[in-house]
Each structure stands twice: as structure tokens, then as C-alpha cells.
Amino acid sequence: MREFGYRRVHDVPGALALLGADPDARCLGGGTNLVDLMKAGVERPGLLIDVRELPLDRIAATDGGGLRIGATVTNSDLAAHPEVRRRYPALAQAVLAGASGQLRNMATVGGNLLQRTRCGYFTDPAKPCNKRIPGSGCPALEGEHHNHAILGASEHCVAVHPSDMGVALAAFDAVVSYETVDGPGELPLAEFYLPVGETPHLETALPPGALITGVTLPPAPVAAHSRYRKVRERASYAFAIGSIAAALDVRDGVIRDVRLAFGAVASRPWRAREAERVLTGGPASAEAFAAAADAELAAAEALPHNGYKVTLMRNLVIAMLSELAETDPAELNGGTAR
Amino acid sequence: MAPSTSSAITLNINGEKHALPVDHRTTLLDALREHLDLTGTKKGCDHGQCGACTVLLDGRRAVSCLQLAVAAEGREITTIEGVADGEQLHPVQQAFLDLDGYQCGYCTPGQICSAIAVIEEHAAGWPSAVTDDVRPEAGPPPLTAEEIRERMSGNLCRCGAYVSIVQAVAQAAEAEQKTKEAAA
Questions:
Q1: In this structure, what DSSP letter does residue B124 have?
Q2: I need a labelling partner for A201 at 20 to 30 A (CA). Which of A179, A321, B8, B115 fits?
Q3: Mean pLDDT of the A74-91 span
């Protein structure tokens, strides 16, 4: 591991001053991904700015029924928060589906958004990787790629984003807030992650020297009737091979509102807007769910060993929406059970 | 000017203060084992994937292999050496002994630290990935074997003593519940 300096900051201006002064600096939250990548030699910061004690650890209700989540809120506190569980149950479920109890206690919301792919070529400095060394090539295309992207990838990179939390945030139109020395800014999650294209090493639209301060979830009544499901190669404590966050509002047999986002299929949490468009205003039937899944997955481009993901995601869409349609929303939304 | 790559820090471990110089690259796990002779905490994978190095930070379980020692300054660190009350074993330690919740014992300190936290997290009403209804109105889920297995999934046991580990956690949780009820 490269040697590095360490500074602990207690206010946002202090963090921004350090970040702005040293392009070699990185922010340290829980460290569950960064420290591991530093051990592997993939990340080589010259300075770590410990942001864990910044006053960004609160979850607050916003006007109209949304939530504002601070960047240093831990995954555990996010998943345990009563309003998260009540208003956005799929978000609590997504966070709980990720990592282990130990890691969720350490990991932060800001760090979760900025975590790197677990592609085995990216995490091994002995291998070429366009994300690590632009122009060096992508061995995954012809190598180990059974858990790589089927949507939105390019010939330069087929890695997937590993976050579970991000999938639920994508479904609920989350907005990322940040600060720079020039002032604050916001990025909708849909614009937060850059398209892969020819530049897989450029992952987010954050300006240089920016510090994520929080995530805002706008009010979304449909989110109260939502679920997250994660498919993986063992029952717990593993990254997804495919996951889905879904929310559904059906009245008199007609879909009034629907949210769908996929995980582990693209370089970013994948909001399934085409499927949502097909479903909205139509019947809540298994046939309609299948047609919506097919519409979304028409753009899928499978590699030789990850074609199963197309089938998996289709089945997940149908299963999740059927489950939500069959559950009595009055019971789920009313908050009166037990 | 390049920043200093080492610091003199003080760690608060099991209620005692320990002053030590550390290279910033030192993990809490290595500080405990190599600098402070607290070898109860074990190194397994060193990548946060096995849970053998689990300790409690401010009462919450964490993997010490991904925790930089310098970043642990100011926090209350509890290791397996600090969970008993003098000669009186912690109820979770006693349950692991009573029910043979181990074979070779290498993962056991991490299992026990993790289990202590699991029982507290459950008592605080935290849901898990196998909790069917996470809404607060649904109330806390009963600590079934399925819930214990999910909540303990960050601790691997290569001997495969899981059956007894689940029983030990359940017994300790039940004992603590009874103690609480008796006190109430």
C-alpha cells in the first residue's frame, strides 16, 4: 500500500479546503471499499480526508413526505430508520440485502454511491482494465464475465455497479447534493453516473473537488408499496447477479404509478423507464408485466456467458410486479397492520 | 509539502487507553495483534469477507481489517478480551461453550463479538434481509433461526459449526430477554 497522510475533518468547509488543495486526496467514510482497494493497490491516494465525523449524519423528513439523508448516515442507520421503512420500504430492504451487519455499520451513504465495481479485472492491478488504466483493454469481454453488464455497456467496459442501495434510490428519483469551494450543487441520480462509452474511467458527473453531502428522496406515495429482491449465488452476504426495486400503485385494475429499477445489469443502477412507460395506464396483468419486461430488455446485449441475466430480469419483473399487485395496497399503505 | 504518513494516537480499548505510534496504513486489526498483543481478534481474509476480525466500535460490530487504526482514535473499541465481566463470561460466550458453537475456534472471537451485537440490534428493532415486512408498524420480527442465520452471515466458519452457532445465539438471546423481563 502506498503511504498516505490522514486528516480528520469536522466541518464541510474544512473538508473542501483539503480536497481542493490536493488532487491526490480521497475522502474516507467507512472505508469498506476504499481501504480494501488501497490494500490491493487499485486506489493509491496520497491523503485520506476522514469525513465520518462531519455533521451529515441525520435523516430528516422534508415537506410533502420526502426524506433528506445525510452523506455520513451509515447503511445500518438508513435501513433501521422508521420513516425509510415506512415511506420507502424497498430502500430499507435494498440496504439490508447488501454486505454484512459489520460492513453496514461502517459503510456510509456517500461512500455507497462512490463504491467501485467488483469486476475481477478492475480489482487486480496485474490485469489490463480500461477503467483503471484507460486504453489498456477489457479482458472481461472474452474472459470471466458471467456477472457483467447486459445493458448500457460498451466495448470498452462491461463492469456492473455493485450497489443495492443505489437501485432503490434510482427507482425513487433520488437527488444527490454536493458542495464545492464554488458552492453547492445537485445531480439527479439518473445523471449522477456517466454513460460508459469510451471513458469507463470517468464514473460520475461530480465536479473535481466535490464532497457529497446527502441524498434527497422526493415524496413518492407509490414507494410505500414497494419491494426489493436480490438474486445471488448464495443466500446471503454476496453481490447480486440481478436485483430489482419495484413499486406499484393499482386502482380499479389500472396501473396509476409504477417504479422499476434493476441492479447488477449495468455500470449504474438501471432505471427501467421503458417498462414503466409501457405499464402506466394499462392493466396489472402478468401479460402486461411480461410485455413491459420485454420492452425494457429489448436493448439488452448479452455476452457469451451472461445471457441468463436477460431471462432472470424478465422473470424478476413479472414476479415482483405480480407480488405487489396481489398484495392489498390498503393494508400495505395504511400502516395499520399490527 | 507531503503530509506526514504516521501519527501518534491513543486507542481506547476495553476501557483502557493505549498510546502508540502508527503508520497510517496500519489497520485496527494489525494494531491490536501486532502492536498491543491483543491476539484474541483473528485475521482471516483481511478483506472484510470473513468476519474473523469482528470487534465492537462504539458498541457496534465492525470488521477491524478494513478499519484504519488512526481513524479509530476517539472511539470505544471492545475486543473479545473485553466482553467478559471479570471471571464471569458474557452470556454469549457461555452459550457458545454450552452448545459447542465452534470446532477449531479460530472464527469464534469474531462470531461472539458479532452475536453480541446481533442480539442488541434485534432488541433495538432492526429488521434484516429476511424480515418479510420491514415497516415499523409490523413490529420487530421474532429472532428465528432464519433471522439469526441472515444476521450472522458476515461471519464464516470453515469448520461448519453453524448449527451449534445458531443455537448458541438463540440461547443467549433468550437468556438476555429473561434477564430483562426479570429486571422490569
A1: T
A2: A179
A3: 98
Does the beta-carbon distance from B2 to A5 stay under 8 Å?
A: yes
* Distance, CA of B173 to CA of B123 (rounded, Å): 9
Inter-CA distances, A7 with A13, A48, A93, B31, B64, Å: 14, 6, 34, 19, 20
Range of the domain at B131: 91-183
d(CA B81, CA A212): 38
pLDDT of residue A328 exceeding 90, the answer is no
Which range of residues forms the domain containing residue A260? 229-330
Rounded-to-integer distance, Cα A304 and Cα B172, Å:
49
Residue A93 with chain B: CB contacts under 8 Å: 129, 134
Query: For residue A330, is pLDDT > 70?
Result: no
Give A6's strand partners.
A48
The length of chain A in residues reads 338
Domain count, chain B: 2
pLDDT tens per residue, range B59-84: 999 999 999 999 999 999 999 999 99
What is the Cα–Cα distance from A104 to A13, expressed in whole angstroms?
A: 27
Q: Which of A80, A100, A335 sits opposite B137 (nearest CB)?
A: A335
State residue A30 phi and psi, 5-degree precision: -80, -25
pLDDT tens across A3-36, in order?
A: 999 999 999 999 999 999 999 999 999 999 999 9
Q: Residue B68 carries which DSSP code?
A: B
Q: Give the pTM.
A: 0.97
- The C-alpha angle with vertex B113 and arms to B101 and B134, in degrees rounded to 5, equals 95
Same domain, B176 and B99: yes
